[in-house]
Amino acid sequence: AQSVAQPEDQVNVAEGNPLTVKCTYSVSGNPYLFWYVQYPNRGLQFLLKYITGDNLVKGSYGFEAEFNKSQTSFHLKKPSALVSDSALYFCAVRDVTGGYQKVTFGTGTKLQDIP
Amino acid sequence: DAGVIQSPRHEVTEMGQEVTLRCKPISGHDYLFWYRQTMMRGLELLIYFNNNVPIDDSGMPEDRFSAKMPNASFSTLKIQPSEPRDSAVYFCASSFLHSYEQYFGPGTRLTVT
Predict the structure, then answer these.
(1) How far from B68 is each of A88, A106, B28, B52, CA to CA, in Å?
(2) Contact across the interface for A43 and B93, Cβ inside 8 Å
(3) What is the pLDDT of residues B54-71, one digit of tens each?
């Protein structure tokens, strides 16, 4: 079975500081990895994905993620946090055993701005 | 494009009543997903369709839940009879075969009293 783990329920960051949201994965084959963001009372929005190629993936709103095969990690990063980045962030992995498009989501990490 | 459209946005019903949630995927997308989100269980995949055909319904909680996709632009998720433990936010999402990422609707917040 495929799975992702987000070890932190919440990450606190001050505006202007760099942020990191952690994600580790477990798959039987090559991973397809994703990050989504959810603002209050909204659906999830796609941020970025890793399928193949460069380990550093750039996405929407200045976010990027680094794929690390040896550590089975796909951490989300941003050099300088904004207040508007406060939201719930989900890591996800494509489940190859479940079919072509089945994706398993992590439990989510709440990013909280510290005034 | 208007994105994925879901209706209603909020639904409050009494236990035992039938509930029907509706979804219009993004035009041209050939996959449609139904998810349920709760604080306790997080985001759960209920069922997904490919070209209007159900592919995996292993996440459907029990026989009270059913989903249909009569055509490429419309899907329903029905709960009959509804129970208080069905209270959750239900999301519909769609995707295109070669893009992998999913596009979510705004969700339907269901409250069963």
Answers:
(1) 30, 27, 18, 8
(2) yes
(3) 999 999 988 999 999 999
